[in-house]
Amino acid sequence: MTGGVGMDSGVRVRLAPSPTGSPHVGMIRTALYNWLFARGRGGTFIVRIEDTDQARLVEGSVEEMLGSLRWLGIDWDEGPDIGGPNAPYYQSERLEGYRRVAEALVERGAAYRCDCAPERLAEVRKASGGYDRHCRERGLMEGDSPSVVRFAMPLDGRTVLDDLIRGTVAFENGLVDDFVALKSDGFPTYHLANVVDDRAMGISHVFRGEEWLPSSPRHLQIYDALGWEPPRFAHLPQILAQDRSKLSKRHGATSVREYREMGYLPEAMVNFLALLGWSLDGKTEVMSADELKRVFTLERVSRSGAMFDAKKLEWMNGHYIRQASHERLADALLEYWEAFPQGGVSPLPEREALLRVAPLVRERMKTLQDAAPLLGFFFQDEVEYDTAELAQKGMDAAGTREALIRALDALEGLEAFDGDSIEGALRALAGELGIKAGQLFGSIRVAATGLRVAPPLFGTLEALGRERSLSAIQKAADRLAG
């Protein structure tokens, strides 16, 4: 048997994660590909929480996953009546439907009840590597004892999958266990719930990671047993670390929240994740979400694993920071500092104040984390530094103090206190003093900001304003006099 529905049936795709921890970037990439595919074709994208494995649920993981999607701008459609508009579906709220389908499978002879004890199952697996179909041969009746429902896989023949990425993939039925479809507690396994819900929700295409490829014969056989037409399947390439092993915690951050906390922009993450296994033409790298919606196709998805290149992500994030408007950059910083106060400026500055100074540091930023150390002094009443840092290489305290006093005179006399005027006055002063411009600028930089490496000096002094700049330089000269 082979799976497949045509494009003319309408595009309906879904993300169906299990809430068992922080969402891996691989899962978020799957969400992104589903979303791009649906949005580019006027289709529907659904989020369905597969929470039937109650023992593995991790509190807060659903909220983190939904928060990651919202942060990236990945919106979804529909939602159950009990959850309100656009709430995700939860499989734990749909148990009766799975039970009915399991009973139908038993009635058709496509499934059977199994009451094998855990100890027996462990022994059988140890001896043969799988279930020995003991209860299939016994013909266990309902009510005999607590039992699970197992699907009766065909004992011969092959199940053939026509995968949209990998082409034709065949599985020997005899090598696939009679798997559990419904557990004794009434909860379905992934295999049954997945099929039932995809059918009920009219899913046309299933995008999932290649690690789920071995599940395909189980799912296709359930469809066949029920007489249902399966969706089209597309198994996405794995995301690999630099050592070509599967990306995991031992390689560093693997969740979107971690990258958000590290100061990455959502538009950079969307662009980067889209290229993990897909490309437009092999050379175009920077694309907005709107552009990706227009050009994304499954034909350009690779079969081979996609390398997660953290340096490329950092480069891409820096590009988006440099290309951002003043307003976008200021808003991104405020949002970041509010969400992660430990990496920001406290208290939060006013947006208008940040609009004036954020552009000064964009060229020095790779992530939003880089901003606070460079901008914090703007929002402090007093800056702190070691007086010895005022004197630059080749200068002593007396010479530095004289240069600062002369700088006061030069800046105080400016008609316009703007970057160009400040630069012209200070460069001329350095010539008059017979010192290098960098020596003079370094002393003033420390005096005004408390930093040796700070935003561009002339723009910084302009943003600080005449009064505050002159006051800082005067205080520095006074410290050198003491």
Describe it for me?
The chain is mainly α. Among the domains are: 256-378, Glutamyl-tRNA Synthetase, domain 2; 387-481, Arc Repressor Mutant, subunit A (Orthogonal Bundle). It has helices at residues 25-39, 61-72, 95-107, 118-128, 134-138, 190-200, 216-226, 256-261, 266-274, 289-295, 310-323, 326-339, 351-357, 371-375, 397-412, 419-433, 437-449, 457-464, 466-481; strands at 12-15, 44-49, 89-90, 111-114, 148-151, 158-163, 167-172, 180-182, 205-209, 232-236, 239-240, 306-307. The strands form 5 sheets. It has a 3-stranded parallel beta sheet with strand order 1-2-3. The protein has a 3-stranded antiparallel beta sheet with strand order 4-5-8. Helix 16 packs across helix 18. The chain is elongated, with a radius of gyration of 31 Å. The N and C termini lie far apart (90 Å).
